Hints:
The structure holds 2 protein chains of 2 kinds.
Chain A: E1 30-31, H1 35-49, H2 56-71, H3 84-92, H4 107-122, H5 127-138, H6 140-153, H7 161-180, E2 202-207, E3 217-221, E4 227-229, E5 244-249, E6 256-261, E7 266-272, H8 281-287, H9 289-297, E8 301-302
Parallel strand pairs in A: 2-7, 7-8
Antiparallel strand pairs in A: 1-4, 2-3, 3-4, 5-6, 6-7
Chain B: H1 7-12, H2 22-25, H3 29-39, E1 44-53, E2 62-68, E3 78-84, H4 97-100, H5 102-107, E4 116-117, E5 126-127, H6 130-148, E6 150-152, E7 158-168, H7 175-188, E8 190-194
Parallel strand pairs in B: 7-8
Antiparallel strand pairs in B: 1-2, 2-3, 4-5, 6-7
Amino acid sequence: MPRDGSRRPAGDAVPLAPMDIGEVANPPFAVLPDPGRVFLVRSERFAALAPGHQLEPYLHLLSQITRAQHDILGELPEPVLPSPERLALARDNTMPPISTGQIALDETADRTFDALLKTLAAADLAETSRTALEAVEKAGPDGRRNMMQAVILDEIPGDAIAEHVLAAAAVQVLFTRLAARLDVESLKRVADGACPSCGGAPVASAVVGWEGAHGTRFCTCSICATQWNVVRIKCLVCSSEKGIAYHSLEGGQETVMGETCEACDSYVKMLHQHKDPSLEPIADDVASLALDLTLTKEGWTRASVNPFLMGY
Amino acid sequence: MNVQFSRRQFLKGTGAGVAGSAIGAFGFGGAEVALAQAAHAFKLSKATETRNTCPYCSVSCGMILYSRGDVKKGEKAEIFHIEGDVDNPVNRGTLCPKGAGALDFIHSKQRVTRPMHRKPGSDKFEPVTWDFAMERIAKLMKEDRDANFIEKTRDGVTVNRWPTMGFLAGCATSNEAGWLTWKAVRGLGIVAVDNQARI
C-alpha cells in the first residue's frame, strides 16, 4: 500500500504489481518417502542406465532387486512404529524417531526379507547371483535376522557381501515403510549428514527442481529414502563451509559431481536433478562409480553409503 | 556423522582376507575390473562454488559464484557463472536484472581494478599506487578539515561538524563494517554519509 503523501497512479492507472524476478525457493525441511514410488522409480532408473554401461549386468541385477523391493509391498504386514511416548521422546531430544539402532527387528522384518527372497527366486537372475540367494535361504530365519542386524550395525563380513546386500535391500523396504508412517512435522535436524527419520547416512545429495524449492539441496537417506534439506556448499560430513569444490569427470556426465571438502578430505556425490530430473540417488551413485574411482585415486575418501556399493 | 573410513579398507581388515565389493560378490568382478582399468585414464574437472554478496545495492542479495582454476596451485581462477543463492534468506535464489548480469560487470574491460588519479588540469586518469592514493586522500582531507571544521556554533554550542566533506560507503557490508564506517566517519565530524541504505 502506498503511504500517505507518496505518489499514487494518476487517474485509472493500474497500480504497479511486484515484478517477477525469479522463483522464490521455500523448501520444506524434510520429505518422507512414498514406498509405492521409491523402489519403482529406482528400478526403472537402473534399467535405463544399464544398456551399454560397463557395469551393465550388475545394473540389470540391481534393477531386478529394486523391482522385487517394489513388488512385495502389497503382501507385507503393517510395520510397527515405536510407541507415541518413544516418538515424543525422540522429538523432544532431537533424535531420529526410528533410529536404526533402536528399532528391534520383528516379524515384519522377517517377512519382508522372506518375501524379497521369494520374489527374487522367481526372477530371471544370472547364475552367479543365484549363489547368494541360495546362501541366504540356507542361513535359516535366525541367520537372516542376524544378516539384517549386521547391515544395521555396519558390520559386514568380507566373505558374505552379496548375502548382506540382499539383507540391506530388505532393511531398506522395512525402514522406508516405517518412515512413510511418520509425521513429517515432528522431524528435527539431527546433523547435516544424518537422516532425521532413521539417523542413516546420505547416499548422495541432489539440487532439486521441485516447484517452490527450485535450486535447493536435499540429501537422500541410504536406508529409508527420507529426503532432507541442507544448504548448498557445505560438507555433509564435517559441516565445513570452506574449501568446498565440485568434481566431475572431464568429458563425462556433468550432472553428477563429487562435493569435496578440504577440511576432512572426504566427498559425497551431488546430483543436478534440476538439470536432469531422471537422476535417482541410489541408482546414479552406482552408475557413476568411475567418478568414485577417480576421486579416491586423488586422495579423497568416499563418505556416503550405498548398500549396492558395499566395499567402496 | 558419517563413517569416514573407506569401507573397502574395513572389509579388507575383516572376514577371511577377501577384499571384495558388492559387484564382485554377485559375480561381476570382470566388469568391475574393466571399469577400474578404464577409470585410470579419467581426469577430473573441478569447479568451486563460493557464496558472496551482490555489490550493487543495499538489499545485499546472496550470490553463488562459480569459478575454475585453483589459486592455491598457482593457477588463474576465473568466474564463469553467477546465480542467486537459494539458501540466502534475503533473496532465496532470485536476482534482479543488474545482479543477474554481474558476470559481465566482473569481466568488463572498463572495470576499474586499481586506483586511478586525474591530476589537476589533466584530461585523463592515470594508474597510481594504493599508497599514493591513500596519502593523497588523507592529505586533502586533513587540509579541508583544518580549513572548514566547525567546533562550536555562534551561540557557543559544541557541534564538532565537518560540513564540507562527504563520504560514500559500501552497501553490501556486514553490521561490523557498518559500525566501523560510522565510527570512522562520524568521529571526524563528517555529516554527509551515504551507505545506500535504501533502494
